[in-house]
Amino acid sequence: MIKTYRDYTGDIQETCDVCVIGSGPGGGVIAKEVAERGFDAVLLEEGGHFTVNEWDGRPFRGLIDMYRSGGSTGTLGNPFISLTLGKCIGGTSTVNSATCFRTPGGVLKKWREELGLENMTEKTLDPYFERVEKIVNVTELPWDVLGNNANIVKRGCDKLGLTCRPLKHNVKDCKGCGPCQFGCQENAKQSVNVTYIPLADSYGARIYANCRAERIVIKNGAVRGVEAAAVDPKTNRNSFRMTVTSKIVVTSCGAMITPSFLKWSGLKNRHLGRHLQIHPAGRVVALMDETVEGWKGVSQGAYIDDFENEGIMMEGIMVHPSLLLAALPGVGREHKGMALKYNNLAVFGVMVHDETEGRVLKGRSPKRGGGVMATYFIRKTDSDKLKRGIAYLAKIFFAAGAKRVYTSISKMPVLYTPEDAVRLMKLRVRPNQIETMAFHPLGTCRMAADPKQGVVDRYGESFEVKNLYVADGSVIPSSLGVNPQITIMTLSNYVADGICARLGSM
Amino acid sequence: MSDLKILKGRYGNILRSVMNTVIPRGGAYAPGAADYDLLPRAEEMLMSYDPSIRGLFPLMLNYIQFSALIHQGKIFTSLSEEKGAQFLSSMEASPFFYRRLIMLMMKLITMLAFYGSDETERLVGYKHGCHLK
Q1: Average pLDDT, integer, range A458-469
Q2: Cβ–Cβ gap B45/A63 under 8 Å
């Protein structure tokens, strides 16, 4: 049973083998794996618990209920980059687009060579990938379920000799209802909240939603437990106290929160919060003559990786009118004219395999509600990749028959001909002239063989505090160039094995 | 209306004026922001934001109100619909990133509040819920 704020009537004391903080793709996997092997697990989640009957699938309610700070989080720099994070049971997996990729072989090689992570090989990880993919049912959907948005881009790619492929998704019986990012309306998305969390629950893990960890209790260089508080979802204020005594603590709060939380718990590793990589992203919107109705289909259906060598990945993304229209130029009657064309719009995104490294700062204390504070000054090389990716996508849309293309580049917001796309390619664009978003924070507690290079060892245990593990996007040592949820889940499963081995020897 | 904390008084008036300018009555479809009570929804959205961003919002509204005085000769709430739209369009096309960001935030709050019901979604041809049902 998952307890929520309305179940709390007073202070809570818990004793367990493993206390997991965070219920996303990292924490959910750990809780299920350790509970399945007979260990006593307690899982704390700061956000609420929502089910298909409770979310309405619209951005307004979804952002307020299921996203951290209503989706207003981001990184400070040149420019401010919006970086949305899930905050609910299942974490970001509950509100993502269900896109699944394995860790690219080249990335694993880099980790082995640069950080001495000899265990990061396909041979070692393949059984973990298979296990995770089976549980979340990674599958390839047919083109008709992917919808017109994907079909239009495929048509443009076919004309230009590029390859547009269907993405793999963690879904079961998905019929392409549309808005995946605010809770799957059909429960088809096999996110952590409908897979790992119910499994953890069935194996006896005790799960507390609306419960914010405040600090890890550390004595003589080893963890002793966690101090937490129930959070009133209406006010976001801490109320009843919760004390967990545990042999092992696993932080799985995500790459934007984990480093801050560990700093507030007294950790001082110099890499803590550093090496933040986020896959900076931009969007391209095409106005078509034909009716697209892109919302009838999977919101992120297809991808193009022909420009992978340049560090550019392209993925579809169709969103609700309130989000798409806000991003398009036009105020007043001009906006209304554009709004009427919503069903003629096709949208695709560009994501950059970034070289830039940002930093997560200590931020506000969890006792005062916590919060994200991070900097990320995008390098010119990365913003150039973003510009090129946007120009490539514009060419693809024109090849597919677009009448106009809207970019996220303020210096050239509207393109009217394929020649404009060529001009955009040559245009000098400053980073702050691109409206940039990000969805994949990684690397802020990176894994390394040597304590001089990272925060956790190759099994996810902190170099600084015994029996403290990290299992989330923060341990991933570098940008992946692809969506990270399967990598996070796989590494977490690997870390869970190490935790079980440790518990067995205690 | 009395429950508003951030958008009470003049801040509420400025945002209401911005919303009515972004989505005016008439044109491609009849209803505009003025036909709905959007301030409580905007307030609810703002209350979910990080306190640091929430705290900046009144400053952003003041920026719009008084920079209109410099660019258009009148504070924003005194501008006609046409002049107001001109001014907000100029913010949207500004070479200065944070000026564009303020405008993006205003549009986002307006759109989230406005296009959040079956009735307004239908205006743009979107049908909420699984279209296969």
Answers
A1: 98
A2: yes
Chain B contact set for A320 (CB, 8 A): 115, 126
Which pLDDT band holds residue A177 (cuts at 50, 70, 90)?
confident
Give the closest residue to A498 by CA, choosing from A265, A248, A216, A271: A248
Give the residue-averaged pLDDT of A41-67.
94
DSSP H helices in A142-301: 143-160, 196-202, 258-264
Query: Could you give all domains of chain A from N- to C-terminal order, each with its CATH number?
Result: 2-137+181-276+439-505 (3.50.50.60), 140-171+281-353+379-435 (3.30.410)
- Complex ipTM over 0.85: yes
Which one of B130, B132, B133 would you mutate to disrupt binding with A, by most A Cβ within 10 Å of its Cβ? B130
Closest in B45, B88, B123 to A60, CB measured: B45
Alpha helices in A190-274 (DSSP H): 196-202, 258-264
Q: Please check whether residue A233 touches B, CB under 8 A.
A: no
Q: Closest CB to A72: pick one of B24, B49, B121.
A: B49
- Band the pLDDT of A371: cuts 50, 70, 90: confident
> Is the pLDDT at B1 greater than 50, yes or no?
no
The pLDDT tens digits of the residues spanning B77-117 come to 999 999 999 999 999 999 999 999 999 999 999 999 999 99
Query: Do residue A60 and residue B112 have CB atoms under 8 angstroms apart?
Result: yes
Contacts of A53 (CB under 8 A, 6+ apart): none
